[in-house]
Amino acid sequence: MKEINASEFETEVLQGGKVVLDFYSTECPPCEALAPKFENLSRLYGNDIKFFKIFRQQNRELADKLGVKSSPTLLFFDNGKEVADRLSGGIKRSDIICHLDSMIPVERVKAIKSQIKPAVTEFDVIILGAGPAGLTAGLYLCQAKINTVMVDIALPGGHVSTTHEVSNYPGFIEPQAGYMLSHNMSEQTKLCGSVYKVAVDVTRVDLEKKEVVIDEYETLKAKRIIIATGTSPNLTGAPGEMELKGKGISYCATCDAKYFVDKEVVVIGGGNSAVEESDFIAKFASKITMVHQFDKLTANKKAQEKLLANPKIKVLYEHEPRSFVKEGNQVISEIENLKTKERIKLVSDGVFIFIGFKPNIDLFKEKLELDQWGYIKTDEDMRTSIPGVYAVGDVISKKYRQITTAVADGTIAAISIAKELD
Asked: I want to staple 70 with a disulfide (CB 3.0 to 4.6 A). Which of 135, 198, 246, 359 is the partner?
């Protein structure tokens, strides 16, 4: 794997035969999550495909020329031509492999796959998810001398790592940068002795057997499992959204706001995330138009007051998006007035979507007792309906989802398990 700059793009990429190119940024959790996957795959596929990285912030002109609007973004080339769909955002290892496999002969794919040897590792506890709830559970368990592994498809920190500022976490007088708060939590748990398996694909989860398969080849076995998988951003469902994901539509202000200096942006949403992230985006963008389905914002009052006092930000109440289309370097958002049914088009340089979340339970939702909204039901000790399986944090059924409540959940589950395994 080699890092290049814009001046080397022509010779290394366009004249380099089979190439995969990673546009990455700093202070970008999805980029950090991709890095170990990209490096590992370069060792497997490096004899057949060249792996290059390019620092997007120092090569912005090239990124703009190629239409790269989000970090990270992977581009795949064969003899100077792009040969597969681009991958961006939270990129899965399996998706990269699928693209790489399509670029080389079947017999080479089989030879490469034959180098991957199955492995089995045993622990006392597997924690699925390394957000505040999972990290706290890991901290308490390792302090209790219980052999614990943290498993996450991204880097530790959860949504906190992509939050601009956290002003209500006890113990800090000044607001804390989200990525630093999550980093400190992660380092504390790591130094305690918890094993980390992060930036991996979770291939299969068997809650009854207490087994988790990661990256298709390593099986983790344990006596207990804690589900701390959190939530994912909701999609609007409007035509064009999926096609423009990472190509003008973003779900991470921390990752992408810095690329909209003196540009116009549309933000979909009006809750805490939308309001707080719009305030952050306003540090860079010249104008922000918020599109909110209700007749007033639903964020906390302090955040609302700050946002409404910002002359860069305008709010369109009782509107919803109906489609997104790319025209040149601009995104056309068609929105509908929910009262009059009139539709208008907003022309912007990019769109950010913050409209809430859904629980990440697709791998095991059929096995657990859930509430009417699809969140996992637990008892006061964080036990689920399956013996030996616990759930904590935003993924569970509860009234309030905050960092502090997630930390409390993790504490309770860890103490309960420690007493059982003692």
From this structure: 246
Amino acid at the residue 160: V
CA dihedral 159, 164, 167, 168 (to 10 degrees): -10
CB atoms within 10 A of CB 421: 15
Q: State the Cα–Cα distance between residues 265 and 333, nearest whole angstrom.
A: 11
Token code pair at residue 370: 């859930």
To the nearest whole percent, how much of the chain has pLDDT over 90? 79
Reported for 166-169, long-range contacts at CB under 8 A and 24+ positions apart, including other chains, are: 166/403, 168/402, 168/404, 169/403, 169/404
Q: Which of 118, 192, 187 is nearest to 148 (CA)?
A: 192
Please tell me whether the overall predicted TM-score, pTM, comes out greater than 0.85 for this model. no
pLDDT at 254 over 80: no
Q: How many residues does the chain have?
A: 422
End-to-end Cα distance, the chain: 46
Tell which wins on pLDDT, 89 or 390. 390
Region of residue 79 (phi > 0: left; psi between -120 and 50: alpha; otherwise: beta): left
Q: How far is CA 207 from CA 116, 199, 218, 375, 416, in A?
A: 25, 21, 16, 16, 18
Domains of the chain, start order = 2-113 (3.40.30.10), 119-232+358-421 (3.50.50.60), 249-355 (3.50.50.60)
Is the pLDDT assigned to residue 54 strictly greater than 90?
yes
Q: What is the DSSP letter of 415?
A: H
